[in-house]
Amino acid sequence: MKTIIIYFAFLISSFAIGSMEAQETTTDKEEHTTDSIARVQEIKERKIKIATEEEKAKLKKEIEYINKSLENGWCDEEEAEKRKKEAAKLAAENIKNRIVIITNQVDMDERNRHDGKYLELKLTDGRLGLGIEESDDNKRSQKRTTNDLVLAFGFNNALESGQSINNSGFKLAGSRFFEIGWAWTTRVFENTNWLRMKYGLSFQLNGLKPTDNRYFVQDGDVTRLEEFEYDLDKSKFRMDNLVVPIHFEIGPSSRGETNGYRTFSTDDQIKIGFGGYAGFNIGERQKLKFNDGDDQKIKDKSSFNTNEFVYGLSAYLSFGGTALYAKYDLNPIFASPNTELNNFSLGLRFDVD
Q1: Is the pTM of this model over 0.70?
Q2: Which positions make up the signal peptide (predicted)?
């Protein structure tokens, strides 16, 4: 059952993320349609101007050579005039032909662009050639969505309603959590970056170490802490969760402009994220180490009556890529009729670009 749940969670997450990126891509294409038409026309005009100036420069050199030939007596005036007319006609034909080539070349480039690169037909100084070029759109456009690796770790614990941390029943320093995942960050608004949505998929490991030589015992539908008959060298209970976290992130951005497009950077900026997560408990285990005359190790992978569906609230305060991170499970660790015990964590979070 839990294997099916894992596959289902991956499928839903991938579909949701893919849909959001597809919607963003469609929107970006619509936004840049007008700009692309203007850009194509600008490229044509620029290349035609360059080609025309090159042909005029060659015609000027040819006229200067003909005049020098006339001065040196290498040809008469009639021959010189004839050669000038032929040179002018050749230049005009070259310009006309190059305009056609440039127009077709730019249109072809626009049709055949792929992954920001395209095959360009080049005509320089009368020589025709092919080359790989990067499209202007690829150089100028800024991604609205970025992604990064998320790592988090720190202290973990669990409390009953009205219970304080000082008498939680679990070791403060010994109980820890670890989280690893992948997150996407999308700018909510097109022309400002003060609000971002951060979403992804994370694997959480929440560990609890009971105090007073105790361990968890499953008795039917009831799970409780009991004292172990031998001195425990280690008593650790761990829950593994696969969750989809979603946060709204606010904070300033440094702004810039590259090739006419706005750019935003949150490097070395304060960021505040608040939101939550939901997913599935995909496994739990208890490890015991003790000595009953011989060193013993027990690994118990019973269900312990834990809730299969997990959800909670989380928040972080970040500067650059490092954040103070907190999360709280709204669902009890153990299903009814057990005592409601809610897991919470406090630690550091790193967003690794």
Answers
A1: no
A2: 1-22
